[in-house]
Specification:
Cofactor: Mg(2+)
Structural class: alpha/beta
Number of helices: 9
Protein name: GTP-binding protein 8
Shape: globular
Family: Belongs to the TRAFAC class TrmE-Era-EngA-EngB-Septin-like GTPase superfamily. EngB GTPase family.
Keywords: GTP-binding, Magnesium, Metal-binding, Nucleotide-binding
Order of helices and strands: HHHHEEHEEHEHEHEH
Radius of gyration: 18 Å
Organism: Platysteira castanea
Number of domains: 1
Bound molecules: guanosine-5'-diphosphate
CATH topology: Rossmann fold
CATH class: Alpha Beta
Largest sheet: 7 strands, mixed
Strand order of the largest sheet: 1-3-4-2-5-6-7
Mean pLDDT: 92
Number of strands: 7
């Protein structure tokens, strides 16, 4: 199999000096020191697991013979979806937001997992299901754009409304450009359906600190003022540098009920 990239595993991150380590494991905390004094940062630390929880979550994402991580199937309609036997999470976002890169980063300790991409224009967009041992499934939803075809909208809506084992939806937002109109359409849909979701800011290595701070503060404010179902803390990730990937693995493990307790760090 392919070797996993550097910093894909916590053991590699723990060898870094303290400030870099914080930047990789808790990217939002790393930003705190650049905020104006008095800025309310309570929402920066809602989910703040300790090392033991991070390690337990990582073990779930590391495949071996007794714990296979596999692509299961693709579906264009709900009746083609695998039976809803396990807790499930799904990832949605605009095309090009970095969704397949992030899923590849999450599964980088299971290098045999193929994260398929279907970007050819006109190619049918599918929901791709991955099974993580006997613990949970992760669904890669088709990327949306403005002018999403009706059958696509119907597939996504049907999935979000009908999937009873869906524990959390991860809505990806581009860290360089921030919230866009099409992202707001997704937010409105999730709010209307009343299902729990969380926002993930991608490609943070590509945004300057100023742009990143602006987008983070804007989104945290937006979430606070305009949403009911959104988790108060924003997750920041870079699939290139692995920032936030370990924390996100831990949050996935948590929301799928696979971390009985999350002790604070
Ligand atoms: P998708 O359409 O949402 O699946 O997006 P992709 O994962 O294919 O990413 C779209 C583009 O952004 C590709 O050129 C990726 O290499 C790039 N990209 C994705 N994630 C990151 C990241 O974390 N950092 C940087 N610098 N580039 C990224």
């Amino acid at each position: 199999g392919r070797a996993s990239p550097p910093l894909a595993a916590l053991s590699q991150v723990l060898r870094l000096e303290r400030s870099r380590r914080t930047g990789i494991v808790f990217p939002l905390q790393k930003l705190e020191r650049y905020l104006a004094p008095g800025t309310d940062t309570t929402r920066f630390r809602v989910f703040q697991p300790g090392l033991a929880a991070l390690q337990r979550a990582e073990a779930l994402f590391r495949s071996d013979r007794g714990h296979p991580i596999d692509y299961v199937s693709s579906a264009v309609r709900m009746d083609h979806a695998p039976p809803p036997a396990l807790p499930e999470v799904c990832f949605i976002g605009r095309s090009n937001v970095g969704k397949s890169s992030l899923i590849r980063a999450l599964f980088s300790l299971a290098p045999e997992v193929e994260v398929r991409v279907s970007k050819t224009p006109g190619h049918t967009k599918k929901m791709n299901f991955f099974k993580v041992g006997k613990y949970f499934t992760l669904v890669d939803m088709p990327g949306y754009g403005y002018r999403a075809p009706q059958d696509f909208v119907e597939m996504v809506e049907a999935y979000l409304q009908e999937r009873h084992n869906l524990k959390r939806t991860f809505l990806l937002v581009d860290g360089v450009v921030g919230l866009q109109k099409t992202d707001n359409i997704a937010v409105e849909m999730l709010e209307e359906f009343g299902i729990p979701y969380v926002m993930v800011l991608t490609k943070i290595d590509r945004a300057s600190r100023g742009v990143l701070l602006k987008n983070v503060l804007e989104i945290q404010e937006f979430v606070k003022e305009n949403t009911q179902g959104c988790f108060p803390q924003l997750f920041l990730v870079s699939s290139v540098e692995f920032s936030g990937v370990h924390l996100l693995r831990c949050f996935v493990a948590h929301v799928t009920g696979n971390l009985p307790t999350v002790e604070a760090s």
